[in-house]
Amino acid sequence: MDKRWLKAMGWVLTLAATAPAVRAATPVLPATGPSGLGGAAVADSLRTNLWLVEALMGEIVAEAVGALPPAPARVLLAGRVAPTDVSGELLRLVSARVLKERGYEVFVAQPDSERAHVAAPDYTAELTATQVALTYPDVGRTLGLWRSWVDRDLVVVVTAQITENSTGRLLLAERMARHFTDRVTNDEFPVVNSTLYPFTSAAPGESGWQRRLEEFAVLGTLAGLVAVYFANTGD
Asked: Would you call 49 exposed, middle or buried from its count of C-beta atoms within 10 A (0-12, 13-18, 19+)?
């Protein structure tokens, strides 16, 4: 085999490691991650999009519920969720779970005290998911061609209002948000990305023509250097 080819390949590999379109795949992970439901995930666990959404919602609900006196108490989850509001339905399930785990008696409708012989709820909690947004803002590519990692960004915003029914006193009225960002490898991406909900799946972002120009620049530079090498070392 012509030794010039071996030297040329060495040039290619060296440039591939330092080219601007080649970016490090070091994960960006918090120490524990969201811990709203099911405890904190360990640092090296693979957090699916659905797990993250539920965990961030759980953290928000847990903070909102902190405005209530300690259990036992009866809490009415107020408001109706439209059939098309899938994020609202998920938040309602998470809210009921968090309240029950803390020892509260949960109602989803005002009971008829006369017919059911049930005391009226002590507090009313109205939680609305105003934003659940998943994006993959950036993609790393090897040699500008092969996808190696995907950045993941998730935002959950909830408006929370809690009222003491006996006095009408407002205990909480806030807009509460949680944000999570990390990086997954290309092999992990199909596992974390889920089409179960609209907010658990998204298209990986690309930077358009700038990205393509970087790819062509890297490949063009590699091809040019190989051609120059053979031109200078030819017989």
From this structure: buried
Query: Residue-wise over 109-147: b if at least 16 C-beta within 10 A, else e?
Result: eeeeeeeeeeeebbbbbbbbbeebebebebbbbbbbeee
Residue 69 backbone phi and psi in degrees, to 5: -65, 160
Amino acid identity of residue 32, one-letter, is T
- Are the beta carbons of 151 and 183 closer than 8 angstroms? yes
Pairing of strands 169-185, 105-107: unpaired
Structure tokens at 128: 């609305």
Of 233 and 139, the structure prediction assigns the larger pLDDT to 139
Amino acid (one-letter) located at 46: L
What are the pLDDT digits (tens) for 123-156?
999 999 999 999 999 999 887 778 999 999 999 9
SS3 label, residue 222? helix
User: Is the previous residue joined to 72 through a cis bond, with omega within 30 degrees of 0?
Assistant: yes
* Residue 127: φ, ψ to 5°: -120, 125
Which two tokens mark 232? 């200078």
Q: Residue 146 half-sphere exposure, CB side, CA atoms within 13 Å?
A: 8
Residue 68 in tokens: 């209530």
